[in-house]
Write a structure and sequence with these properties.
With 225 residues, the chain is mainly α. It is built from eight helices and no strands.
Length: 225
């Protein structure tokens, strides 16, 4: 077998030592899982952003709050995160306003707590599995480096049985070891980019949700004065 054949990617993977093969298999599996969650989270966050913009347009168009609430309550499977925050707040407002013993400040505080509880659940759902992407991005290069170090050690141990150490003798072993690092970087880079992008998008959504909670609380406060 000539050097060109030895240094082809397929040959390097096939001829790698058992430990390096296990490292490559682990990194390949982690990479597939990270791509799965990258696409899942991309669609989920895009859907949340689109539904948030749609509900904000409807809310600030001056429509009746009771009509918006009925629409959100009867079609929960197709509502967005912000719409569910609104529904929780308006439902709590309707319930507390009917209690004559409560003062306006107590009613508004109860509404805020209800909206913030729903807000936290929605953000937690949107943030689910982002920690996995962060872990893939930070750990994969080190796992690949471990495979590389092991492969280089294996290559140099093999030189003990060779009368003269030449480039042709050592190059395939070192190259197969470096493939592990390449796979580790291939798994890590998309995960890091996706995590940073999703974290930024979620921060912007969280700010919009918190602003809505305060503005909606002010609207309800004016209604009970």
């Amino acid at each position: 077998m000539n050097i060109t054949q030895d240094l082809s990617i397929i040959e390097l993977i096939v001829n790698a030592s058992l430990v390096v093969k296990l490292v490559m298999a682990l990194l390949a599996f982690v990479s597939l899982m990270s791509w799965y969650w990258i696409f899942r989270k991309w669609f989920q966050i895009r859907d949340a952003r689109v539904k948030t913009e749609k509900f904000e347009r409807e809310f600030w168009s001056g429509g009746d709050l009771g009509t918006l609430y009925q629409s959100a309550a009867t079609d929960r499977h197709h509502t967005g995160a912000l719409e569910r925050v609104f529904e929780a707040g308006f439902r709590e407002f309707t319930k507390l306003r009917g209690q004559k013993s409560l003062d306006p400040a107590t009613v508004i505080n109860g509404v805020r707590r209800a909206m913030r509880a729903t807000f936290q659940r929605e953000i937690d759902d949107l943030e689910a599995h982002l920690a996995f992407l962060a872990s893939v991005g930070s750990v994969s290069p080190y796992v690949g480096l471990f495979g590389t170090v092991w492969g280089i050690m294996h290559a140099f141990r093999g030189l003990a049985n060779v009368s003269s150490a030449t480039l042709a003798a050592v190059a395939p072993g070192i190259a197969e070891a470096l493939v592990a690092t390449a796979i580790g970087l291939f798994a890590a880079i998309p995960a890091v980019v996706a995590y940073n992008s999703f974290a930024h998008d979620l921060d912007r959504l969280a700010v919009r949700f918190e602003s809505f909670i305060e503005e909606f609380s002010n609207i309800l406060q004016r209604q009970i004065k």
